TrEMBL record:
It holds the Pfam family AA_permease_2. GO terms for cellular component: membrane. This is APA family basic amino acid/polyamine antiporter. It is a multi-pass membrane protein. The keyword Methyltransferase does not apply. It comes from the Bacteria. The chain crosses the membrane at residues 28-53, 59-81, 102-126, 153-171, 183-203, 215-233, 254-278, 298-321, 350-369, 375-395, 407-426, 432-450. It is found in: Membrane. One of its GO terms (molecular function) is amino acid transmembrane transporter activity.
Length: 457
């Protein structure tokens, strides 16, 4: 039982991190762009319109604010951990240090599931935008190779293609790939700004009436749904060992990236629901649809092209995270040593990257992702709640640990963050709860069957 909750030694972990010869290649600007790139994607390009149509109406902007508040509270906890324990394991390592081995294994397993499912679903969204863009140019791909079997196709080949391409890019090394990622993120921000700059002149305030057609219940239901739009900001914490001056740049990067994303989401939601009636936004390409509706076809085409490029940054960020979690768990003996192997030339976890990429490609190409997206949501919320609770534990067990940033008003901020997470969890369906419990049980079986008595390598 004592081994079940054995904690990782903080001082030993910091000494090991200091002794590593990993190259520090990521500055504050790179960290912010990685966070923005991981966060902004299907949330602003797809989810905003769907939630407006189905749950909240124009008040989806308030839904984004509610979710942002919950995420910012959690982000404060991530920022303290990142400044005190700059480790590539992210939330997994934070919880290992504060709550022990078994809980860390479950959270690591939760993160792996969350991001693998997320990258597959994002790849599916990318495929839709590619098809729409090609259609504008008079090119129609065979439906057999652009739809999953349950939708009448054979395989969603574009989704498979983008996952494998991003996997290859990451195996070339962070130093080489970060420049391409930064460019993709800047393009994505550019199309968002273009949409706002053009769309603001076509806002009709009567589209905002009634502002809350589904009532307060709809606003909170919308908040639970758009929470998925903020998944990804925690990806920054997994890059800690490759960040220059992590005690400063990690907390700043996390908070700035999340704040930028929250502002963008609210502005997009207001402009989008002001351009067209929320009833018309039950479409997968809401931004392009709205621009076409007001006669701005040229802008709609640019947004579609930019979305194709920009969403690739989200796939990149998710593929960056999962292999590093697997590598950390492998180092700790919770997974086979295969996952800890890195390329001698660029220190990248090549095997783990290709394994995650292959799994993500299969899921994106063949599986219906609607329910799996909710699974990713639940697993992310569980992780965020655990990190928030871990701050309370770490403050008690490691009061003298050097921290570049401290969560203010402890214990109130972490407790409020936990309560927000619980509230959002209970706004998800019972089926999602069952899938989540099933995934966690698989993690328990892996721990009992392999990782329980293994030692760190």
């Amino acid at each position: 039982m004592s081994n079940l909750f054995a904690k990782k030694d903080v001082n030993k972990l910091l000494e090991e991190n200091a002794a590593k010869e990993s190259t520090k290649t990521l500055g504050l600007f790179d960290v912010i762009l990685m966070g923005v790139g991981a966060t902004i994607g299907t949330g602003v390009l797809v989810i905003a319109g769907l939630v407006a149509a189905r749950d909240a109406g124009p008040s989806v902007s308030i839904s984004f604010v509610i979710s942002a508040v919950a995420c910012i509270l959690v982000a404060l906890c991530y920022a303290e951990f990142g400044s005190a324990i700059p480790s590539s394991g992210g939330a997994y390592t934070y919880i290992y240090v504060s709550l022990g081995k078994f809980v860390a294994h479950l959270i690591g397993w939760s993160i792996v599931g969350c991001y693998t499912v997320s990258l597959a679903s994002v790849a599916g969204g990318w495929s839709s935008y590619v098809n729409n863009m090609l259609t504008e140019f008079g090119i129609r791909l065979p439906e057999s190779f652009t739809a999953i079997p349950s939708d009448g196709g054979i395989i969603n080949l574009p989704a498979v293609f983008i996952v494998l391409c991003m996997s290859f890019l990451l195996t070339r090394g962070v130093k080489e790939s970060k420049k391409i990622n930064n460019l993709m993120v800047l393009i994505k921000i550019g199309i968002v700004l273009l949409f706002v700059a053009v769309g603001v002149f076509f806002i009709h305030t009567n589209n905002w009436h009634p502002f809350t057609p589904f009532g307060v219940k709809g606003i909170f239901a919308g908040a639970a749904s758009v929470f998925f739009a903020y998944n990804g900001f925690d990806a920054i914490s997994t890059s800690a060992e490759e960040v220059k001056n992590p005690q400063r740049n990690l907390p700043l990067g996390i908070l700035i990236a999340l704040s930028v994303c929250a502002v963008i989401y609210v502005v997009i939601a207001l402009v989008l629901t002001g351009m067209v009636s929320y009833k018309e936004l039950n479409v997968g390409d809401a931004l392009s649809y709205a621009l076409n509706s007001v006669g701005q076809e040229w802008a709609a085409l640019i947004v579609s092209i930019g979305a194709v490029i920009g969403i690739m940054a989200v796939v990149f960020a998710y593929l960056f995270v999962v292999p590093r979690i697997l590598m950390s768990m492998s180092h700790d003996g919770l997974l086979p040593s295969l996952f800890a192997k890195v390329n001698r030339k660029n220190s990248e976890p090549v095997i783990s990257t290709w394994l995650v990429g292959a799994l993500g490609a299969v899921v994106a190409g063949f599986v219906d992702l609607k329910q799996l997206a909710d699974l990713a949501n639940m697993l992310a919320i569980v992780t965020f709640a655990a990190v928030s609770f871990s701050i309370l534990a770490l403050r008690k067990t490691q009061p003298n640990l050097k921290r570049g940033f401290k969560v203010p008003f402890v214990p109130f901020i972490p407790i409020i963050a936990i309560l927000c997470c619980i509230f959002l969890m209970f706004n998800l369906s019972m089926k999602t709860w069952m899938y989540s419990i099933g995934w966690m049980l698989i993690g328990v079986f892996i721990y009992v069957g392999y990782g329980r008595n293994k030692k760190s390598v």
